[in-house]
Structure formats: C-alpha cells, structure tokens
Amino acid sequence: MCGIVGYIGPERATDILMEGLTRLEYRGYDSAGVAVYENGKIQVIKARGRLDCLRSKLEGQPLYGHVGIGHTRWATHGEPSDENSHPHLSQSGRIAVVHNGIIENYAPLREKLMRKGYEFVSETDTEVFAHLLEDTFSRGNGDILKAVRDTVLKLEGAYALGVLCSRFPDRIIAARKDSPLIVGLGEGCNYIASDIPAVLPYTRRVYLLEEGEMAQVFADHVEIYDMDLQRVDKEVYEVTWSVDAAERGGYAHFMLKEIYDQARAMRDTISPRVKEGRFNLAEAGLTDEMLEKVRRVVITACGTASYAGQVGRSLIEKLCRVPVEIDVASEFRYRDPILSPEDLFIVVSQSGETADTLAALRLAKARGCKVLAITNVVGSTIAREADNVLYTWAGPEIAVASTKAYTTQVLCFMMIALQLALVKGRITQEKYDEYMKEFLTLPDKAEKILEDVTPIQKLAARFFSQEDIFFIGRGLDNALCMEASLKLKEISYIHSEAMPAGELKHGTIALIEPGRLVVAMCTQTATMDKLFSNIREVLTRGAVVLAVGYEDSTREDEATSYRMAIPRTDDLFAPVLAVIPAQLFAYYCAIQRGYDPDKPRNLAKSVTVE
Ligand code: G6P
After folding, report:
1. Residue 609 lies in a domain
2. Is 606's C-beta closer than 6 angstroms to any atom of ligand 1?
3. What CATH number does residue 355 fall under?
4. The whole model's pTM is what?
5. Is pLDDT larger for residue 462 or for residue 249?
6. Over pLDDT 70: what percentage of the chain?
7. Is the domain of 338 the same as that of 228?
8. For residue 459, how far is its CA from the centre of ligand 1 (angstroms)?
9. pLDDT value for 190
10. DSSP code for 157
11. Is 293 a catalytic residue?
12. What is the pLDDT of residues 262-276, one digit of tens each?
C-alpha cells in the first residue's frame, strides 16, 4: 500500500526521502514522488512506475533543499500516472500534501471547491485535501496547524497526512486517522513515515501517532497535538529490532529470507508462552478463568491470516468441542453478524492495519465483544484497539507474500486450542503433556525441512509451466490447501484452486486433464483412505499428483508420482510444517517463471483500503 516519508534537517532531503521510500517499496506501489522546499518555493517531482523512474528524473533535475515529503502510491482513485502521484500541490503551489488512506467524501468536497474556482489536475481524493487546506488556510488567522486541523475535521474516511507549506519551511505537519503514521526522532533532524523501516537507518526512537493526533515536526523538536490543539505528552517508543532484520541479509529475496527465518520465528512465538510445562497466555487475557467461560469462538481476518484462522477453527473444534465461526472480514462486517458478549472474538492480522479486519474488530467491540488480536506489529492500530493481543513475534515481514506470519499465527491458534481443551477438560493432563512435548519440537522440524530444499527446487523446475494447479486435502489439510494455493497464485501467477478433496468430483474434476498437476496434502490419517480414493479419481483422468506427506510414510509413493516430505508429527500440528514445502514450491515456481516474488503484481503488503 502507499508509503509516506518526510525529512527536515541539515541533509539534502531527497537523499533521505529516496532511501526511506526504498525501504517502503515492499508495501506495494505503482508511482512515487517527492516535494522539497527550495529557493522560496515547493518543487515537486513525481513519476509513474518504480522508484528508479523517479530517481532518473531527480538526476536530471536535482533538488538541494533540506525539508521535504515523499510518497509511494498504490492507485485507488485514478489510474497510476504522473499526475495522480503524490505529492499534490494546492492551487497556489504553496502547500504540498502526501496522503495514505481514502477520503470518502472527496466527491462533494471536490464539487464545492470547483464551484469556488479551484482547478484539479488529478483524479485523486488527495488533491481535494490540498485545495481544501489552502482554502481553509486563506480564510484563517495564519496558523497552519489550526488550518490542517480544521480541514481534517471536514474529511470522512482514513488518512495519514504529511503537509509542507512554503510559508512555514521550518516544519512538516502530520496527522493521522485510521492509517498508520510515525515520527522519527533524530539529532538536529526529524522524520515522518508511514512505517518504521523507513526511518530505521537513522533512528530507533519514534513516536507512534494515535488516532486523531497531529504533529508539528521541526528540525530540532517535535510537537504533538490532539484534535483540540492541546499539546500531548508522548512516550518515545524504542525500536528493538535491527535494520538488518528489515533487510534481506544475503538471501536473494525477502520472501526466501522469511521462509528460512521460520524456525527462529516459531521459537520466539512459543518460548515466552511456555512456563513449567504449560502454556501461559495470560498476557493476552486468556487466563484459565476466562477460557472456562468461552462458549463460542468467532474468527475474522483477510488473506493468509484468514487461512491461519481456518486451521484455528479446525483445531479448536476438534480439540475443544467449542463451536467456531469464521469469515473473511470484508464479508463478516456487512452481513450483520450474530455476536454475543460471551463470544471469544479473534482477529488475525500480520500488519495490524488491514482496513476490513480493523472494521470487523470495531464492529465486534460495538456489539460488546471482547476482542483478541493475533498480530505481528507492535503498536499497530489493531493491536491498540483490541482488548487483548497475542503477538506472533515473527519479526518484520517485508515480502508481500506472507510466510512466517502464517506459521506463527497457526502456532498461536495451536496454543489457544490446547489450553482451551485442557481448561474445558476435553483432554487429559497426560494427553496435554504429550501434545506439549511434540509441539515444542516443531521449530526443529521446520529447520529440518529447510536443510535441503533442492528436491523442491527440482519439482518447481518440473512444473512451473503448468497453467492450472489444484490443491486437494481433507480436514486440516484442506485448510492448509487454501494457503498453499494462495501462495502459488500470488507470486507465480499460475492459476490455482484449493478444493476439499471430496468436493472435487462435484464439478471441478471437469478441469482435470492429462498432465494437470494436483497437489495432495496427505497428513491427516483419519481421512487418508478417503483422500486416496480422491487421488485415484484424478490419476485415472491423467493428472500428475504431487503428494505432501510424512517422510516415513510409504503410502504416497504407491499412488503418486512426486512427493515433498515433512518430518513426522502429530496430525494436528502438520499444517505448520506442511506449509513450508508449499511456500518453497511457490517461491521457486515464481523464480523459474522470471518473476520477482517480493513484488507481486497488483498486490500490496498492507491493504488499508476497504
Ligand atoms: C494483503 C496481503 C496478504 C495478507 C492480507 C492480510 O492482501 O497481500 O498477504 O494476507 O493483506 O494482511 P494482514 O496484515 O491483515 O495479515
């Protein structure tokens, strides 16, 4: 999604802005631009396409000013073009604006401004803000902060805003509502950014702006205000993760690095929660007393996080005999869901910023539910608005295609399910201990899968030119198939479908033709015979079957032509291991097809629009 960077200080602003924007590339974008105050006025340079397009424009027309704002845009209102890129200038050229989010009432505001004689050069909602701010400022008392406040009060929707005004070149003004924004604190210089990695090379000290907060960022100090223009005394947040953690560290792509980082991430998710042979989830409000009262669980999320939720549903229902309802957040929020304050309501979000998930959280809270968030990003909006948070501790996930966030989200569900099952007396202490023992081996087993990935690389080289690939499985394998299939299509652009294996014959089997690849997830012993009947159904129609199963199982070899193996574990824990070969298969298919897995077309890491 869009990225914002701002800088004020002694350095050449464009150097810092371009570096920051480069670090935000992972958010997904289709155009970029900068605005710098220089020689008494604001200069704007922007370009459609990758940052390199902007870089070459800047080489031809270098800017030397010391205060500026920059932006990477992911088109929402208006196609990707130079004109629609940010920053946007007000009519007089005295105000430049960068904006993340969507101004929902932009159409009536635009009409009103046009009637007043304002001329628009773009189709964006953001340009409306630039003109509206100028209009408000010109009728005010010369206080730019107040003019920004008065203008944002007229907006409906979400915004993170950076404002530069040529009348006040000593400051950048920032404001946020429903879209993340931080202020980075330097020595004799300061920054704004939509995401921490943008400022990490320069500082680890940041202010996380809250809903409805504004900042006046000067080179030597920062002032934070609320919507009543009262000063806010904020705590500085010290970033503990390193720049290196946010960089590729020798791997060809962030995605590969993050796949390999999974054993570490899994250990970090598990270890703080195991105390004296028991899971302790009290930090997330999941005390024994609270768990005892749970009658129903409701899970909502988007994309990969929703597929982690699908695994969570199967685990909780199977282990705890507690009904679980799950829906993607974009559907959930509009179907007037039936909720009760007794429900355990869980939202799952890597970024903690996904607009639909956030809206679902707010809806649940409005209906009196206590919300538990499973998220990766500390200080994210979802983390702050949820009643309780279970952090995944996966570390920054940069690649658009989610990997370590998924495995750690699934681990969180496993811990919740096991603890809930014990507290509700659905499993004995002995069984719980047995599960715990096996659960603690999962990071080592993940590491083992990653020791030699050559067989998976070879399979990708064999199958990358397929046009359609089907994933089939039953029970937990079916939940996993959805994520495996999503991973493949996200980065390799191979069309793919995940089907419950037994459902295939009710329609989709019509698409099976000689040579078509069907990936069969084979980790659920209870339904294995049934699954093998389904495998035979596709084999007899000429399909090629690639099985994902336990390394010590010979069964797959009898019926299928190819396999990817995982170490033996309890069937309940298999998704967290079996997803790893599927991630690698998707990654190597993308490489074989010549695509950059870190920058999949049309996708964004964090989707902050609905
Ligand atoms: C985007 C990403 C997906 C991600 C989804 C939910 O669509 O491309 O990879 O699964 O958002 O993101 P979240 O941050 O809420 O987990």
Report:
1. no
2. yes
3. 3.40.50.10490
4. 0.77
5. 462
6. 97
7. no
8. 27
9. 98
10. B
11. no
12. 999 999 899 889 989
302 lines ligand 1 (CB under 6 A): yes
Residues 164 and 253 in one domain: no
Count of structural domains within the chain:
3
Q: Do 197 and 351 contact (CB within 8 A), yes or no?
A: no
Q: Are residues 316 and 405 in the same domain?
A: yes
Same domain as 480, residue 421: no
Tell me the β-bridge partners of 550.
566
Same domain, 428 and 546: no
Residue 472 lies in a domain: yes
In-domain check, residue 53:
yes
Residues 420 and 493 in one domain: no
404 noted as active-site residue: no
| pLDDT computed for residue 27 by the predictor | 66
Comparing CA positions, the residue from 2, 606, 74, 99 lying closest to residue 352 is 606
How sure is the predictor about 550, in pLDDT bands with cuts at 50, 70 and 90? very high
Assess whether 42 and 120 both reside in one domain: yes
490/28 Cα distance (integer angstroms): 13
Q: What's the mean per-residue pLDDT of the chain? A: 93
Q: Is 215 left (phi over 0), alpha (psi -120 to 50) or beta?
A: beta
Q: What is the CATH number of the domain that holds 45?
A: 3.60.20.10
Minimum mean pLDDT among 62-71, 227-236, 400-409, 545-554: which range? Answer: 545-554
What's the pLDDT tens digit per position in 21-71? 998 886 667 899 999 999 999 999 999 999 999 999 999 999 999 999 999
Alpha helices by DSSP H, listed for 13-102, are 13-23, 51-60
User: Helix %, strand %, coil % for the chain, to 5?
Assistant: 40, 25, 35
Token code pair at residue 131:
């003109």
380: its two tokens: 């994210």
Task: Give the burial class of 277: count Cβ atoms within 10 A of its Cβ; 0-12 exposed, 13-18 middle, 19 or more buried.
Answer: exposed
Structure tokens at 108: 């009536």
Same domain, 195 and 151: yes
Cα 305 to averaged position of ligand 1 atoms, centre (Å): 7
Burial (CB < 10 A; 0-12, 13-18, 19+), residue 318, is: middle
Is the shortest distance between the CB of 400 and ligand 1 below 6 Å?
A: yes
Residue located via tokens 């609320």 = 226
pLDDT value of residue 205:
96
Domain range enclosing 46 = 3-239
Residue 391 placed within a domain? yes
